[in-house]
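Support reply, case 0932

Customer input (verbatim):
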Amino acid sequence: MIAFLLMGRESGSLDFASFRTLSLSLGLASAVFLLAFFGFGAKAGMMPLHSWLPRAHPAAPSHASALMSGVMVKIGIFGILKVAMDLLAQTGLPLWWGILVMAIGAISALLGVLYALAEQDIKRLLAWSTVENVGIILLAVGVAMVGLSLHDPLLTVVGLLGALFHLLNHALFKGLLFLGAGAIISRLHNHDMEKMGALAKRMPWTAAACLIGCLAISALPPLNGFISEWYTCQSLFSLSRVEAVALQLAGPIAMVMLAVTGGLAVMCFVKMYGITFCGAPRSTHAEEAQEVPNTMIVAMLLLAALCVLIALSASWLAPKIMHIAHAFTNTPPVTVASGIALVPGTFHTQVPPSLLLLLLLAMPLLPSLYWLWCRSRRAAFRRTGDAWACGYGWENAMAPSGNGVMQPLRVVFSALFRLRQQLDPTLRLNKGLAHVTARAQSTEPFWDERVIRPIVSATQRLAKEIQHLQSGDFRLYCLYVVAALVVLLIAIAV
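Our regenerated output:
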């Protein structure tokens, strides 16, 4: 609001049309941009203003979480684009604006997926994944802003193409995963993935839809997440064309961070799918789970089908998004798709369309053919038995857990995590495996512990100190009104 009030003071109106005609000084324009960026960034869930997001999603119903993640947080992205590339376009974009957006996007993406890996609550995991994907979108937005600063239409359009494409794709596959999580929770009445397991046999349609969602969010071909992250990668590669040495270094660094984020995202959703749908049931509810009603299945399958169709129609959809980018930034047209090519024709990383089609078809088929070949070579007989449990009776709780998957990363990135212990007297009396699992159930992000909570505590102390101003005395309230009127008159006179 302060950013818009500053622009309104300069233009004499709060109409967007009047904002577009402003030519602000660099200092004032930077102040407006920073206020709008962090204000809308808080709504988008970018770091370091993300703390509300992992708390809001588990508390909301799953269909509301799908809407929040798919639509509401994108309003923050739209606000950043609107202010930086539209309302302040007349002033001009300094180069450091785009670099700042890229840096915060890269940090949000990497830390978001790390914290997602540490979660055992299925909805909190998806919420942290939203932080990660918002970071990926901001990476592409930053590249587009750098392109506007350098008057490079190709860089601008490809960056916006990656951002808008991923914005659309994230709404689809994250909505699908939240609906899948809602279907699971409706049957198991629990958010904890450690209490799930073996649901693929009991909820096959839900498992199939969630598998497509996990593959899409992991940016694996031939699904839509791969296409938008491919464009984002191309926009980062294109920074090598820029003469500025800082950007030539920033591009590879951001590319490495995006690649690491992608690898961790695959690990995160392998963990989520494996712990939830595979293995042995870890609770009574998991053993007795049944498939959800057909209406819920149809909603998930529709989103799963869209994830596949958008990927296959990417070269048709990319020019449509390209025209939106042209209209939004007033840049000259450039070609970003030809036939089924997914990259601009001027890029040295282009893949021939015929080879690309074969790759998209072969990638999902080759693992299936390899599995059939391995199965045909097995012996005619098979011996089955219980897993060896060191001489003790086997329990389903002994199966590999999400904490075991996360343990190496928790050690490597121990500075970023803080163990959140749950003090349950009944579990402490048992001193069994459940007690150990409960103690290591989840982690507390370093940022929340060291930065956000002290700010919240200071705000609460300040509010407690000034609460005496609201004493309930009507005469005191009249004095406040008169004092405010006097201050306003003095301000107008000056």
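We compared this against your earlier run and they match. Two observations from our side: Residues 153-188 form the longest helix (36 residues). Confidence is low (pLDDT under 50) at residues 337-349, 433-442. Please reopen the case if you see a mismatch on your end.
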